């Protein structure tokens, strides 16, 4: 479709249609993410966190999902803050001592830089991020 050939009215209505659909798709994505978190599904797939699952398995590593989430949370009066909890491997040795397989052994902790980027995204939306 050539946008140049659309009338002003058609261009306006098409843009509004696309924006409305984008909001609906974003809402559905966020609802799915909430359900994945509720079920802790990412643990089933060997990821230490929802963030790791989203960035490594779902292939949403450009931080756009975090930006969308921050914009989604901004108007919510019941969200006071977001805690950025980095994954660590401090307890891995306990699994080995118990003779258990530690399924997250290949999981890489996020860098400090990435955690700071995520924190800034929330702070830009006036959401306290720790």
Structure write-up:
The protein is mainly α. The chain has a domain of 69 residues. Helices cover 55% and strands 3% of the residues. Strands 1-2 form a two-stranded parallel ribbon. The longest helix has 32 residues. The protein is elongated.
Q: Rg to the nearest angstrom?
A: 19 Å
* N/C terminus separation: 46 Å
Q: SS-based structural class?
A: mainly alpha
The DSSP helix count reads 6
Walk across the major sheet and give the strand order: 1-2
Summarize the amount of helix as a percent range. 55-70%
Rounded mean pLDDT is 84
Spans of at least 5 consecutive residues with low confidence:
none
Q: Count the beta strands.
A: 2
β content, as a range?
under 5%
Keywords:
130 residues; mainly alpha; two-stranded parallel ribbon; 6 helices
In short:
The chain is mainly alpha-helical and 130 residues long. 55% of the residues lie in helices and 3% in strands.
Q: What is the fold's blueprint, element by element?
A:
Blueprint: H1 8-39, H2 41-44, H3 50-56, H4 64-73, E1 81-82, H5 92-97, H6 112-124, E2 128-129
Parallel strand pairs: 1-2
């Amino acid at each position: 479709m050539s946008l140049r050939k659309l009338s002003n009215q058609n261009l306006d209505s098409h843009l509004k249609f696309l924006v409305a659909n984008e909001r609906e798709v974003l809402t559905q994505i966020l609802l799915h993410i909430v359900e994945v978190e509720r079920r802790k599904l990412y643990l089933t797939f060997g990821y230490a966190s929802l963030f790791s699952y989203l960035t490594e398995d779902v292939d949403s590593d450009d931080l756009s999902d975090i930006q969308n989430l921050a914009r989604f949370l901004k108007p919510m009066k019941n969200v006071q803050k977001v805690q950025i909890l980095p994954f660590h491997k401090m307890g891995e040795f306990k699994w080995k001592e118990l003779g258990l397989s530690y399924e997250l052994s290949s999981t890489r902790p996020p860098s400090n830089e990435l955690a700071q980027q995520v924190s800034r995204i929330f702070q830009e939306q006036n959401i306290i991020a720790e």
